[in-house]
Amino acid sequence: MSGYRKKQDAFGQALYSAFIAGQDCFIVERDDGCFYDGGGLKEYLAEHSKWPKREKEAIKYAKGRVLDIGAGAGRHALYLQKKGHEVTAIDNSPLCVRICAERGIKDARLLGIEEAASLKGKYDTVLLMCNNFGLFGKKSKAKKLLRALLKKTSPNARLIAESYEYHTPFFRDYIKRNLRLGRDAGDLTARIRYGKFCTPWFEYFRVTKEEMKDVLKGTGWMIEKFINGQCLSYVAIISKAALSNVK
């Protein structure tokens, strides 16, 4: 079966603690030895009325059959399901999938982003919210998986994807380190810790708007519009490009 083993499911354990007891803390460990509080777990459980403005605007673009990748506690999936959409919520955390099910999501599955193409049928909307564009891991891998999602979606499908403008003082030294190591500036190698639980090291990446456009080149997807927020996160509404643009 896909997904983390129990001792590896640090984020799921942290989120489940937030779900049942209101706790709001987990630790991110970077590969350069930096530790910081990931925080913000209560946001994963927020009702629509408390979502950031950019998310409220972006979710209006969802249509038809929906695939929510990296669903977490399932707030986007649950909202759309209540609106009458058929929604599949996937996550590689067993406890996140459990939370989704306990909150009432009808189709919650233990799958990672790499396995999305194994699902049956086609989807009209794919969600990559909560900065989940980064779940592709690296730009090269993103192109491969974006092409796979192209085949998994209907002719007029959209991706609704969130990322993060990462050029901040906090990341400055890490960006310099990435460039010295020959990596992309927005790359991140990290793992999550919560109590005695710890995920394996994983690859994640952040992109600026211009970098996202570059990632999409040759994949069959193109930017329809960007939705900015009051913070550094933004949401991209991404639609299918002409098939002649696919390489």
Helix-strand layout with pairing:
Layout: H1 10-21, E1 27-30, E2 35-37, H2 53-58, E3 66-69, H3 75-82, E4 87-91, H4 94-102, E5 108-110, E6 123-128, H5 139-151, E7 153-164, H6 172-180, E8 187-194, E9 197-198, E10 202-205, H7 209-216, E11 221-228, E12 233-240
Parallel strand pairs: 3-4, 3-6, 4-5, 6-7
Antiparallel strand pairs: 1-2, 1-8, 7-12, 8-9, 8-10, 11-12
Helix pairs in contact: 1-4
List keywords for this structure.
247 residues, alpha/beta, Rossmann fold, seven-stranded mixed β-sheet, five-stranded antiparallel β-sheet, 26% helix, 27% strand
Could you walk me through the main structural features you see in this protein, from its secondary elements to its overall organization?
With 247 residues, the chain is an alpha/beta fold. It has one domain (52-185, 206-245): Rossmann fold, CATH 3.40.50. Helices cover 26% and strands 27% of the residues. It contains 7 helices and 12 strands. It has helices at residues 10-21, 53-58, 75-82, 94-102, 139-151, 172-180, 209-216, and strands spanning 27-30, 35-37, 66-69, 87-91, 108-110, 123-128, 153-164, 187-194, 197-198, 202-205, 221-228, 233-240. It has a 7-stranded mixed β-sheet with strand order 5-4-3-6-7-12-11, sandwiched between helices. Strands 1, 2, 8, 9 and 10 form a 5-stranded antiparallel β-sheet that branches. Helix 1 (10-21) packs parallel to helix 4. The two termini are 32 Å apart.
